[in-house]
Amino acid sequence: MSNKVEVQVRQIRLTDRIEEYVSKKAGNLDHYLPSIEEARVELAHYKAARDANDRNVAQITVFGKGFTLRSEERSDEALAAFDKALDNLQRQIERYKGKKYNNRGDGRSAAEVAEDIIDEETGELSPLFAKRKKFTLYPMMEDEAIIQMRNLGHDNFFVFYNAETSKINVLYRRRNGSYGLIEPELG
């Protein structure tokens, strides 16, 4: 364990057992990415949360030279939330390592990286985007977009043409189960 671990709590009593567990697990993050210098863990309990499963929140933030990674999860118990946040952070670290070590974190631009993507069979330059998707937008109201989003099984977001504003909008689901709407404007 070479990285420093700082544990903060809000509305929770920090016992030796909790502090030891959190410090040990967060201290081992440098096994996944050796350049992690510091980890901050914040455990909080919110009595006013609507759902009992969202009352305990764990945030883990790791700092290293040139990067900061953060994860936040909620659960009915503080250590369960911490474990979920730790798993999420480990996935982020793996993605970061993939970007870093696959010639993307070396300061080159996307165009320079694209030059290295050559199809071995044809010898031609492969496209930077692996997939492009086109679909027809039909004008609909916001409540229709919510229904369409549910029917299609899109859990995170849905792009639609707003009939009221005559603009393209993005409908998205928030953590608490409600919906948000992005209304882009040209700058």
Topology, element by element:
Layout lengths: L3 E7 L5 H12 L8 E10 L10 E9 L2 E9 L2 H27 L5 H6 L23 E2 L1 H11 L4 E6 L4 E7 L5 E4 L5
Parallel strand pairs: 1-2, 5-6
Antiparallel strand pairs: 2-3, 3-4, 6-7, 7-8
Keywords:
8 strands, Double Stranded RNA Binding Domain, 29% strand, 187 residues, 4 helices, 30% helix, four-stranded mixed beta sheet, alpha/beta, SHC Adaptor Protein
Named CATH architecture of the largest domain = 2-Layer Sandwich
Strand order of the largest sheet: 1-2-3-4
The counted number of beta strands is: 8
Low-confidence stretches: none
Our count of helices gives: 4
Backbone shape: flat
**Largest sheet, strands/sense/barrel:** 4 strands, mixed
Question: Would you kindly provide a written description of the structure presented here, covering whatever features stand out?
Answer:
The longest helix has 27 residues. This protein has four helices and eight strands; from the N terminus they run βαβββααβαβββ. The protein is of the alpha/beta class and 187 residues long. The strands form two sheets. A four-stranded mixed sheet has the order 1-2-3-4, with helices on one face. The protein has a four-stranded mixed sheet with strand order 5-6-7-8. It has two domains: 103 residues, Double Stranded RNA Binding Domain; 44 residues, Sigma 54 modulation/S30EA ribosomal protein, C-terminal domain (SHC Adaptor Protein), CATH 3.30.505.50. It starts with a strand and ends in a 5-residue tail after the last strand. Helix content is 30%, strand content 29%.
